[in-house]
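Hi again,

Forgot to attach this to my earlier email, sorry! This is the prediction with pyridoxal-5'-phosphate bound. I've pasted everything inline since the attachment limit keeps bouncing my files.
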Amino acid sequence: MGRCDRQPLGSAPSAQRAFPPLPFAAPDQPDAELQAFLEQASARLCHWLGSAASRPPLPGLSVMPPVEPQSRGLGVDQLLADLDLVMDGAYNPGHPGALAHLDPPPLAASIVGDLICAGLNNNLLAEELSPSLSRLERSLMAWLAERIGLPAGSGGVPASGGTLSNLMALVTARRERGLGTCGEAVVLASADAHVSIGKALAVMGLPPEALRAIPVQADGAMDSQVLAVELDRLARAGVPVLAVVATAGTTVRGAVDPLPTIADLCQHAGVWLHVDGAIGAVFGLSDRHAHRVPGLARADSVTVNPQKLLGITKTSSLLLLARPQALERAFATGLPYMEPSWGGGHGGESGLQGTRPAEVLKLWLGLRQLGLEGLEQLLDGAIARREQLERGLADLGGLELRSGPLHLLAFTPASADGCQAEIWTRHTRQRLLDAQLMLSRPLYDGRHHLKAVLGNPCTGSPELERLVAVVASSLPLQPHQLP
Ligand SMILES: Cc1ncc(COP(=O)(O)O)c(C=O)c1O
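Structure tokens for the complex follow:
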């Protein structure tokens, strides 16, 4: 790694002293060492990805390399050997039995996008730090917003995770509602809304009571009649409502709140509608599957997480808005240490984050690689797997199945009380892990469930059949599983 030789701080360059070169790419010729390093690292990564099926989804405890830097920097061979140790102990999302979480294997082009993003090291804070990428980001946000049905002129901003997208949505809603200094404002969301909503309110300095939980119906979707009554009651009591948060894809079962009805109620009450579509909003991008999330187009703001079902490498979340100018009203600071924007505005002025990477690159590259037909295929596959598993488990009898219109499915023995469900799910999860199938074990509605997320495109019928067989052999509840 060529010319960026290390010099003693505060002294003039010295021809006599031979310092090892600092590991930055040479600026005047392709850096052969860097290229060799990248090639070896990509070969290892490709091997890791390509051997996913032969390693368990959840590795056992692995040996860790030393964490502290030594006085002399390490060479490439040692770095790669240390990397191997970390990779050995990493969660293995590409295993066909990795069904526990909303974390699929990475889409190929998004890996490349991440690499190039790191190499470019641009900063979406300001246009002069990311000229082409700032424009790419604005254009792609506008395309995505319109694709899910938001009106012409809509757009948004990427964020480092759905939690941050939800927080930015609520801060923006509060600003737009003129409730910036109001400590009495409340947010209405279903009892199954994601925990990040409560977290957002805490960050916003609101008390826990500011989150009003609306009960869900048997299908896991918000009871809109209760919402209507509550909105009416709050209006009569003079309590300001900052926003209604509807969920398009709840975390445990993938339920979708009745968005069109909720949108009508919000419109009537003059309340901001935020849709937390971290799980489900990607279905709104599809011609064949948009019917699973009807009414997305009526939202003031929508959280979308391409890092989940689409397999865009982490992190990739977006906050899309019908009127994206609201973001600047909520977050712009004037960035006094930057040249003024010459185009559509600085990225750092339209959200909470200042410096942030060009996450747009891997999303753009990934979507272009997938194509619209690939997107349909990806969603078709996820839905087909959920339907197959649902049929298989329903045929066993004795299970309570919790699902929705998306690709998530949770289940527990119908007759189990809380304690029995805890024991059964713990034992059965272990038996599934022994069969190279990883499910998660959320506590839902007072009882533990096993949860499968069918977003892994490497999962096929053999895994689903094996899963049903293991569950079948764990039923009915055995006496030793009873407390
Ligand atoms: C419905 C929902 N909203 C928001 C989030 C938070 O997303 P993140 O983990 O990217 O912060 C999740 C995470 O699973 C989720 O399921």
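Residues 360-396 form the longest helix (37 residues). Residues 102, 161-163, 166, 194, 196, 247, 249, 251, 276, 278-279, 305, 317 surround pyridoxal-5'-phosphate (CB under 6 Å).

That should be everything now.

G.
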